[in-house]
Amino acid sequence: MMLFRRAIASAPRLQAAGADTPAGRSLWADARARFLRNRAAVASLAILGLVIAFALFGQHFAVWNNEEIDWAMLGNVPQVGGPSLSNGHYFGVDETGRDLFARTVQGTRISLMVGIVGALISVVVGTAWGATAGYVGGRTDQVMMRIVDLMMSIPYMFVLILLLVVFERSLIMLFVGIGLISWLDMARIARGQTLSIKNREFVEAAIATGVRRPVIIWRHIVPNLLGVVIVYATLLVPSMIIFESFISFLGLGVQEPSTSWGALINAGAQNMRNETPWMLAFPLAFFVVTLFAFFFLGDGLRDALDPKDR
Amino acid sequence: MTAFILRRLAIAIPTILALIVFSFLLMEAAPGSPFASERGVPPAVLANLEAKYGLDRSLLERMGIYVWNVMTQFDFGPSFKFKDRTVNDLIAQGFPVTLTYGFWSFLVAITVGGTLGLLAAVYHNSWLDTLAVGISVGAQVLPNFVMAPILVLIFTLWLGWLPGGGWRGGQAAYVILPVIALSTSYMASIARITRSSMLEVLGAGFIRTARAKGLPMRRIVLRHALKPALLPIISYLGPAFVGMITGSVLIDVFFSTGGIGQFFVNSALARDYSVIMGITILIGTLTVLFNLLVDVLYAWIDPKIRY
Questions:
Q1: Measured on CA atoms in the order B112, B117, B120, B123, is the torsion positive or negative?
Q2: Best interface-test mutation with B: which of A150, A151, A152, A166 has the largest number of B CBs within 10 A?
Q3: Which PANTHER family does the record associate with it (chain B) (predicted)?
Q4: Which range of residues forms the domain containing residue A55?
Q5: Does B24 touch chain A (CB under 8 A)?
Q6: Residue A74 belongs to a domain with what CATH number?
Q7: Site from B25, B249, B282 to mutate, A interface, most A CB atoms within 10 angstroms
Q8: Position A8 in a domain
Q9: Rg for chain A (alpha carbons), in Å?
């Protein structure tokens, strides 16, 4: 059946300008079919949906507020602070008696937000940068890509921490710092892809009809980059989450009472010796499962959208 | 080749200079910096700074002195917080530690990762291949800050085999956990890259020729396939180096190994700007030089690169 459909789909291409071509299948429809056949990717998408729902609506199910201290727990957290359905601490409490479920909801929000904002910046800035450099070419290209090389060759985490120390730690500063670096890889990828597109006939046609350069880049180059861009943006989300978690684990990222997966894992790790394993287990489980899901989703999207590059 | 190296140096040196100037300006702009105000700075430190830079001089002059000291004598000046310590003291104390476990981590990542990837490709679709792919997929979600607590939980708290921190002059038992925590995710990446590049090379025409003339598999892999398959790994060494040196900060903090990462984070929390700056510049310079080395190595091995 599959083969048969393929044959029909490729038929119109063979008969050049056939008069009665059957309804062709678009690139995106093809991609969707390929994606849906990949079980791991579809399952990952479902899991990510659940994690996002947890971040968005989790606090409605929490019995306790994320800043509220349960005084009944304080002092003997290792004995009575474990996960329990009866007292409303589904994930237990942390070392200061705060509800870990509410804290995890809060941390999940921040971590996902960092990942998504980083990916969005990379899509916008990286694509624009790479497409411009690749399309314009020549000296402009050299200078633009040299800047990317230069920024990539410095150990960025150190500079970011320096920035965070100098300009007070805040979520905004963290976003700025992450935004400054997230687009570099994307710029390279977009440039490479642009180079392979820019000599195609439809671009030549656009040039011949007198379309201006920025319009060509925006209307003809960028849409053809989208597949690759989506794939790498998906793979970038987990690396941004890792990036932020790393800083927060060191205690240099988000500040109390705000939190993120990295900060929660750090708190869990510091209390390992106090017999409170749930403090490490829940944030770690969310972190690992979400990262896995993003990687499998990215792989699935790559197979679906970018079949030649495996 | 000399021209190529010179051209690369012509990029590397301005990069390092730019990093130094950038850090310096950042420090000048920082609120609470001794250059911005005199409040909150111990008098002894102020005297140190006065002697070194002359606080009454202009910004450009001070910057010139700083850059000159760093570039010619690797002198990062006095600490902003402790009157009896210079940044160089801290680096001299912490750097050998970082270097020790960093070196082992790098070695482990390359040898174990490379071997795993190689075996996976040679015995494609066997259980070894499945194992290697499984490990490399799994390790993607185990960055150093996840590995470190898990390792301590298992090997220190449950099994009691290895110490969960400290350094003790670099005794083997104290080095093992930091090395594993730091190298795992890079080992996985190297295994993945080696596997895919080896598979590609093994499918090439010249390998088929080698097999057709009856060479033993071992000889084909080691003599013919290895060299071209190594190229992607070499280009990965640069990012791996940056990642590991960044990860060393976490290792130092988590395991209290006493490397420069520990000084870096403590200074960041205490706003000891000159230490943060000094370490950032040192690490930046090392990275740029390492990338230069990788580029040269790549150009030397890959005959397709013209320079």
A1: negative
A2: A166
A3: INNER MEMBRANE ABC TRANSPORTER, OLIGOPEPTIDE TRANSPORT SYSTEM PERMEASE PROTEIN OPPB
A4: 30-78+92-309
A5: no
A6: 1.10.3720.10
A7: B249
A8: no
A9: 24
